[in-house]
Amino acid sequence: MNEIQKNNDYLLKEAEYSVIDIAKHLLSLDSKREYFTLDKGDFRLNKILHMCQIFHCFKYKMPLFKEPMHSFKDGAVVDKVSSSFQELYHNNLTISTKELDLEKKWFIRKNFEYFKKSKDAILSEFSKDDPAWYLGTRNNEESRLMPLSEKIIKYYSDFFDDTFREIFPPIEEEIEELLEKKKCYFCKEKVEKTELAGFEHMEHTITVLNEPICKKC
């Protein structure tokens, strides 16, 4: 086992979820498959999974999912997702999955809503801005394994800060906007009434009064 594999195994084992858990939730946010289409969905799903992994490392200093990524010409790819994309697309994958907690659903939705506005070429370029992608291209052709290390996670914190702030604006602004629209903070569905809720944001627990929360969340 080489040094890259050792580092990856050490950090990835800390992740709570599998990439299939995350992929299935992302696809559930596009139930009509208007974004994750048959011809573009595999590419887009892999790129947004990559963004989720980057910004989860940025925010929590640990990966979101357990599986490694590999470098391809258009950016990062998770083999497990690409190999099962058809089953994921048609929602007939038989692998059991773990239910995501509310904060992870919120985190994934925020990434999806931000990056789905980007053209495919921009998604590809952003994926290749990850130094792990470049380092993966220097591995042998069979592997092209993208490394994950404390140094790379620090790079994310140092160089992706502006994008992180765009994805996750100050919570007070977001809640004010949701209250006006009467939408659930977590799933963005319409709600008729508001309830008391507590929510972990960044490293602080914030209690939010009159935050709209739907019954299913």
Residue share in helix = 40-55%
Regions with little confidence, pLDDT below 50 for 5+ residues: 194-210
Helix/strand order, N-terminal first: HHHEEHHHHHHHHEE
Radius of gyration, CA atoms, in whole angstroms: 18 Å
Domains (count): 2
Mean pLDDT: 85
Strand content bin: 5-15%
* Count of runs of 4 or more consecutive helical residues: 11
User: Termini separation (Å)?
Assistant: 43 Å
The tally of beta strands, per DSSP, is 4
The dominant shape is globular
The side-by-side strand order for the widest beta sheet comes to 1-2
Broad structural category:
mainly alpha
Described by strand count, sense and barrel closure, the largest sheet is: 2 strands, antiparallel
Provide tags for this entry.
two-stranded antiparallel ribbon, globular, two-stranded antiparallel sheet, mainly alpha, 2 domains, 4 strands, 11 helices, 10% strand, 217 residues
Describe this structure in words.
The chain is mainly α and 217 residues long. The chain folds into 2 domains: 3-166, no CATH class; 169-211, no CATH class. The protein has helices spanning 3-12, 19-28, 41-60, 79-82, 85-89, 102-115, 120-128, 131-137, 150-159, 161-167, 171-181; strands at residues 70-72, 75-77, 195-201, 204-211. Strand 1 (70-72) and strand 2 (75-77) form a beta hairpin. The longest helix is centred in the N-terminal third of the chain and has 20 residues, at 41-60. The radius of gyration is 18 Å and the shape is globular.
